[in-house]
Amino acid sequence: MSHPVVDADMEPTRRGRVRVETTAKRVRTYLDGRPVADTTRAVLVWEVPYYPTYYFPSADVDAQALKATGREEHSPSRGDARVHDVGGRPDAALVYGDDSPIEEIRGHVRFDWASMDNWFEEDEEVFVHARDPYTRVDILPSSRHVRVEVGGVTVADSRSPRILFETGLPPRYYLPKTDVRLDLLRPSGTVTHCPYKGRAEYWSVGEEEGGRDLVWSYPTPLLESQRIAGLLAFYDEKVDVYVDGVLQERPKSKFA
Questions:
Q1: Based on the domain organization, do 157 and 228 belong to the same domain?
Q2: Is the pTM of this model over 0.85?
Q3: What percent of the chain has pLDDT over 70?
Q4: Nearest to 36 by CA among 89, 106, 103, 100
Q5: First to last CA, the chain
Q6: Which CATH number fits the domain that encloses residue 77?
């Protein structure tokens, strides 16, 4: 995977397992219909290895929306932060002072993602978490023969999959609905969001709990993922997948 070229001011900083770098994107977060923070100087902080979190300079945050709780939260890597409520949402923000061991986040505010109503990069809404600039999604048409079994029953059989390759995750085989036994699927009502692909709907296979939410689709994916619109994918971690007649090892991932 190629990484973008960055200038000296954007070189990432590391402290233990925490990585920090700047972004040139305009980032906003909204609460009750109005922006609480709006900046072109956001800092991306990888508190966990999987994805980053936005930190806003205090000067670009609506100070009137913050209410100090008088409590502090300690992080071994980031130091002590003052806990704030935001617009009536409890414990929704952490404010880092000048004593943080990470210089780049001193004087910055970290909002709890789920506590806010909306997040935007430029004018595009972002869901679930901040986008990782080092995550790439490639969707390639293929003529490989993909067959999916659930409990020994063939549920899908396709020679025209589209294979989605996403950094850090196993390949996903997206199949035309005409190649799937739709009579074996039942809508589960589950909906999830992905920062890179959009809103997904789920189906279960059979009535057993182990068959719940095995299949998903993005009916109206984000622009960069349009190639999988309306196609169906299976959790390879939970079903048997044959590619060109060879049974694939079930991948080990956070979804297993």
A1: yes
A2: no
A3: 93
A4: 89
A5: 25
A6: 2.170.150.40
